[in-house]
Amino acid sequence: MMVAIAKSAASNGIDIEGATATRAPSMIVSADALEAAASEVEEIARARQACCDGIVVSAFGDPGLAGIKAAMMLPAVGIGESSMLEAVENGRRFGVATTTPLLGAKIDALPEALGLRSRYTGTRFAAGDPQDLMRDPAQLRSALAGAVEACIARDGAQAVIIGGGPLGEAARELQPLFTVPIVAPIPSAVRRIIRLIEARSAD
């Protein structure tokens, strides 16, 4: 699903290939799971670096991204950082709507690291167990809509990121329900990696 979303966001001539972590947790719902995923994500990137022009880490906490950037010359982006950089365009204040309350501190750390703390209105969490919500798309969409509404009405967000790669389809479906931009992280990351690849090619 995430690869399909990425392909739909890519411009002509850009090929997207997916690689799935198999040792890491199947769904990242806690800080421990995020840390556990990082080393395997870095391994995947090292294994693929000779046959690609750029790397997208498609988990919202961007596990392994710092290590990839430190070790490789290839452009690399995460869906977390990319969506936040897009959300603040035109000076907007932004919030995050997602399903994983145990990742709250990790999500809060991202805008801090990116220098966007003053534009960040906080994260709101969908009601319900993350695993259960993922099994019921209609319930997921409804629960996320409630979190988006809270970001806007209670926190003053002028854009809301749907915080998670597996939430990509819900992100697309929620935009028509709101007047503020609903930022889908995977397309944000695809647009950003293409810009970085093109800039590198032009140098």
Structural write-up:
Helices cover 49% and strands 11% of the residues. By secondary structure, it is an alpha/beta fold. Helix 5 links the parallel strand 3 and strand 4 (120-125). It is globular. It has helices spanning 2-9, 31-48, 65-71, 79-87, 104-113, 130-134, 137-153, 168-174, 185-202, and strands spanning 55-57, 76-78, 94-98, 120-125, 159-162, 182-183. A 4-stranded parallel sheet has the order 4-3-5-6, sandwiched between helices.
Oligomeric state of shown chains? single chain
User: How do the SSEs run, as a string of H and E?
Assistant: HHEHEHEHEHHEHEH
Instruction: Report the sheet-strand fraction.
Output: 5-15%
Give the overall average pLDDT.
Answer: 95
Q: Determine the number of helices (DSSP H or I, runs of at least 4 residues).
A: 9
Proportion in helices: 40-55%
Tally the beta strands. 6
Biggest sheet layout: 4 strands, parallel
Low-confidence stretches: none
Rg computed from alpha carbons, rounded to a whole number of angstroms: 16 Å
Described by the principal axes of the CA atoms, the overall outline is globular
Question: Structural class, from secondary structure content?
Answer: alpha/beta
Strand order of the largest sheet: 4-3-5-6
Measured between the Cα atoms of the first and last residue, the distance is 34 Å
Draw up the topology in text.
Layout: H1 2-9, H2 31-48, E1 55-57, H3 65-71, E2 76-78, H4 79-87, E3 94-98, H5 104-113, E4 120-125, H6 130-134, H7 137-153, E5 159-162, H8 168-174, E6 182-183, H9 185-202
Parallel strand pairs: 1-2, 3-4, 3-5, 5-6
Helix pairs in contact: 1-9, 4-9, 7-8
